[in-house]
Amino acid sequence: MRHLIAILRGVEPHEAAAMAEALVDAGITRIEVPLNSPDPLTSIRNMIAAVGDRAELGAGTVLTTKEVAAVKETGATFIVSPNCDAQVIRCTKTLGMGSYPGVFTPSEAFAALQGGATALKLFPAGMAGTGGLKAMRAVLPEGTLVYAVGGAEPSNFADWAAASADGFGLGSSLYKAGMGVDEVAERARASVAAYDEVYGG
Which NCBIfam families does UniProt cross-reference here (predicted)? Predict the structure, then answer.
């Protein structure tokens, strides 16, 4: 499975299913709807109904355990946060969901791993830079999955791969509110092609 997460911040419920179909057809099978989108839980439900048998659906910008529980009720299978909150991680894992907390420092990275995080979201990756990831990787346990998010896009996948990034969360380089399905599909195909070129398809 490609380590790519599509971040559809601002997606509307009425377009959610079509967007999910386009992403899955392009080869991106993990999709996140940030909770600061319009009626995000409805969008997640609509996506699960459309592609739940072919993709993993989750929520992003999840900040509280109450939000984790609400996302779980939709049938979503993973939680992404911009921060490292031990309670959110524990709640997510207790409910049997994948946990992708945001980290920026070694202290946060180790706290997230101690809490049971599935993978680490280096955020904002553009601020940490490839040098920051290289330095952090030197002390992380072997096998730790790190996704670069916020500053990673197809044009610099190779640089991040050289710095040991395992995958990426793709936001504005893939989707912005108001974009049509065709444009998102085209960007998704370009992202998958760039990923496969770097990591092997």
Answer: PRK09140.1
Residues 15, 32, 67, 153: which is the catalytic one? 32
List, for residues 14-26, the tens digit of each pLDDT value. 999 999 999 999 9
Residues 6+ apart with CB under 8 A from 79: 58, 59, 62, 68, 71, 88, 92, 97, 98, 99, 100
Tell me if residue 93 is catalytic: no
Active site residue 72: no
Q: List the one residue out of 99, 150, 149 whose CA is nearest residue 121.
A: 149
Domain 4-199 -> CATH class: alpha beta
Helix H or strand E encompassing 99: strand 98-100
The closest of 63, 70, 55 to 17, measured between CA atoms, is 55
Query: pLDDT band at residue 71, thresholds of 50, 70 and 90?
Result: very high
Which residue among 67, 72, 121, 153 is the active-site one?
Answer: 121
Domain ranges of the chain: 4-199
